[in-house]
Request: fold
Amino acid sequence: MRTETKRTLPFVYKLIAAFIVSVTMFIIAMIFGAANITLSDLWLALTSNVQGDKISILREIRLPREIAAIFVGAALAVSGAIMQGMTRNPLADPGLIGLTAGANAALAVTIAWIPSVSYFGSMIACFIGAAVGAVMVFSMGAIKKGGFSPLRLVLAGAAVTALLHAVSEGIGIYFKIYKDVSMWTAGGLIGTTWSQLQIIVPAILIGMIIALLLSRQLTILSLSEEVAVGLGQKTMQIKAILFIVVIVLAGASVALVGNMAFIGLMVPHIVRAIVGTDYRLIIPMSAICGAAFMLIADTLGRTINIPYETPVAAIVAIMGLPFFLIIVRKGGKAFS
Reply:
């Protein structure tokens, strides 16, 4: 009887519950850390013009950081959901198929050859690098007949990711900018500023809006390409637009926090277990759950070893690797 109730629970209730969890995690992320912050401090920082040390910490350091966590988590989760639906591959993830590694390599090249580049220029470089990384992986995966199997795509992604990481590290060592490059490669939200958010957030919002508008077509694509063609869908055009959306979301995320794998893998799987296989429901739920997940990871990174910070990428990897192995063992063969 309980199982039946869960299955028939309206989507809006699930969405509200996920939103409440995300808001709760945002409050926890704003309060916990090296500085002793209270709920009243947070309320004053968000609703008044009162000045003070704690208020300044909240407004200038923690608030932009946690807003970045929300949008990056949402962007990576939505891009992972799109890739899994578009390729019908349960192991697809921007961090596992070369997008984030490509963006990192492009960022290293930009820092080395155009050191005075603006933040907007860095973001454009990340978009280009993400596209190059993804094209390399899909090209390698398509060399052999039989299409994209999960194993082939992951192996191609691992090879391209290793190559692009080596390129970015080699550039960093040769041009003596290794410290600057490794700050992005490690992945983190330290030092996020309002000016960065003004550039990144609109790009992520546009990408997610387009993803929502194409969610119905993505649902049909995720079932079968033959069915999509039979229903009159222009599959190549839709795939091209969705691919651009993934590049924008992943590129913007890397420009802000660096290499961050597994979020795009885990969150869509969890969301599908909650809302089913309709991407009109998966996309918005993935955005909210991805935001909550990133807030949790960032809070753990700041509080595990106070006053020092644990890299968020390491925490996400620790949480994501067992999940990845479970998916490989249980879900990968079904999509081969």
In short: Residues 300 and 315 are 8 Å apart (CA to CA). Residues 1-6 have pLDDT under 50 and may be disordered.
